[in-house]
């Protein structure tokens, strides 16, 4: 759930009680804060097992968001995969909803990236293999995540990759079903999501709200639309989004983990959207980041502007970049310092 932080009011009690199972959980340290949620350690007082508990205060939720939270819980609870954060128990009391999940005790990819600013290719392959396995599984269940980004990919104590935060996920009823809502995080949003949103307002004089910015249809269709990459037509981008939107995000994550920054960087969100639509990104020079040609080729394949041109995740794993060495496991010290092979 992504909403403003000040709505996350109210004290979380030191002990919470699940009336269904009769289990109480003791609150520990704060693990992180999201838009609506706060995440604490919670220890099962019977088994002493520690979970990560996402707490959403009911007072902070408008009825519409309560429905969204229920969808998030339903989708997340239905998933069971080694690379997806596991939900173990969900309950509520009069004050809050509690979602008890497996605890990912290392960092998010975003924090890891902040520490190291560009990882080595074998480390990124290690992450990508597990991230792709996770997303293949999620898609096999008919679910699009729609908010894949470094901040939503965590590492547990064994450095196993775990995808979390299903707050924007959507359940499809057939593989070719398309969704039409504007959602995601600006740096990671796929072009078809932006274009579809704008097409819903084509001809209007008003500014169209996008996530974190606004744009007039005129600027979009006559400005941005006129500078689409060669061979791409707006027609192909205004038909909604499906699984391929997650494939785009995987491309952005790969770029970020190799280069330590996002591909469509700008302090101005509208400018980010314009750059995404123009596919306006460049690979930093090899003196800045020594990344090989096969990695760059794979990023170009993932960041195809037309969703129909993006590869399937199976095809991604067959790319020559994945034929190169991948470590079986990574040491936790690499969270802070480069590995020996760097
Ligand atoms: P929101 O949906 O409000 O964005 P998130 O699900 O992203 O909330 O959780 C907020 C923060 O809590 C995350 O950025 C992360 O730091 C922490 N967190 C979430 N889930 C876990 C987990 N399973 N283990 C450890 N920390 C977690």
Descriptive notes:
- There is one protein chain.
- 30% of the residues lie in helices and 17% in strands.
- The protein is built from nine helices and twelve strands.
- The strands form four sheets. The protein has a six-stranded antiparallel β-sheet, with helices on one face. The protein has a two-stranded antiparallel sheet with strand order 7-10.
- 38% of the residues are buried.
- Bound molecules: adenosine-5'-diphosphate (ADP).
- Adenosine-5'-diphosphate is lined by residues 1-2, 31-37, 39, 52, 54, 85, 101-104, 108, 151, 154, 164-165, 167.
Taken as a percent bin, the fraction of beta residues is 15-25%
Helix count from the secondary structure assignment? 9
For the record, give the distance between the C-alpha atoms at the N and C termini, rounded to a whole number: 38 Å
Please give the order of strands in the largest beta sheet: 1-2-3-4-6-5
Taking all Cα atoms into account, the compactness measure Rg is 21 Å
Largest sheet: 6 strands, antiparallel
Give the rounded overall mean pLDDT.
Answer: 93
Organism: Aduncisulcus paluster
Catalytic activity: L-threonyl-[protein] + ATP = O-phospho-L-threonyl-[protein] + ADP + H(+)
Keywords: ATP-binding, Kinase, Nucleotide-binding, Serine/threonine-protein kinase, Transferase
Protein name: Serine/threonine-protein kinase PLK
Task: Describe the structure concisely.
By secondary structure, the chain is of the alpha+beta class. Helix content is 30%, strand content 17%. The longest helix is centred in the middle third of the chain and has 20 residues, at 121-140.
């Amino acid at each position: 759930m992504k909403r403003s932080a000040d709505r996350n009011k109210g004290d979380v009690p030191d002990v919470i009680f699940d009336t269904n199972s009769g289990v109480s959980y003791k609150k520990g340290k704060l693990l992180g804060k999201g838009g609506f949620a706060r995440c604490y350690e919670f220890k099962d007082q019977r088994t002493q097992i520690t979970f990560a508990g996402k707490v959403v205060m009911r007072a902070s939720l408008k009825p519409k968001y309560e429905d969204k939270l229920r969808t998030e819980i339903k989708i997340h609870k239905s998933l069971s995969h080694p690379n997806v954060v596991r939900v173990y128990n969900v309950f509520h009391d009069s004050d809050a909803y509690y979602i008890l999940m497996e605890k990912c005790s290392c960092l998010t990819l975003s924090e890891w990236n902040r520490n190291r600013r560009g990882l080595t290719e074998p480390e990124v392959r290690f992450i990508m293999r597990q991230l792709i396995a996770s997303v293949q599984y999620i898609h096999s269940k008919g679910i699009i995540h729609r908010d894949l980004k470094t901040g939503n990919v965590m590492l547990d104590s064994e450095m196993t990759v775990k995808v979390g935060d299903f707050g924007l996920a959507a359940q499809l009823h057939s593989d070719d079903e398309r969704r039409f809502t504007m959602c995601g995080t600006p740096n990671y949003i796929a072009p078809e999501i932006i274009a579809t949103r704008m097409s819903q307002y084509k001809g209007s004089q008003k500014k169209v709200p996008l996530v974190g910015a606004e744009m007039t249809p005129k600027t979009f269709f006559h400005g941005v639309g006129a500078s689409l990459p060669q061979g791409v037509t707006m027609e192909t981008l205004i038909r909604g989004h499906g699984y391929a939107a997650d494939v785009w995000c995987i491309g952005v994550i790969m770029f970020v983990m190799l280069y330590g920054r996002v591909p469509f960087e700008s302090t101005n969100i509208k400018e980010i959207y314009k750059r995404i639509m123009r596919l306006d990104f460049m690979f930093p020079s090899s003196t800045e980041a020594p990344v090989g040609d096969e990695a760059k080729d794979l990023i170009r394949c993932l960041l195809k502007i037309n969703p129909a041109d993006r590869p399937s995740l199976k095809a991604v794993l067959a790319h020559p970049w994945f034929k190169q060495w991948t470590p079986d496991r990574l040491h936790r010290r690499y969270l802070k310092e480069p590995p020996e092979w760097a």
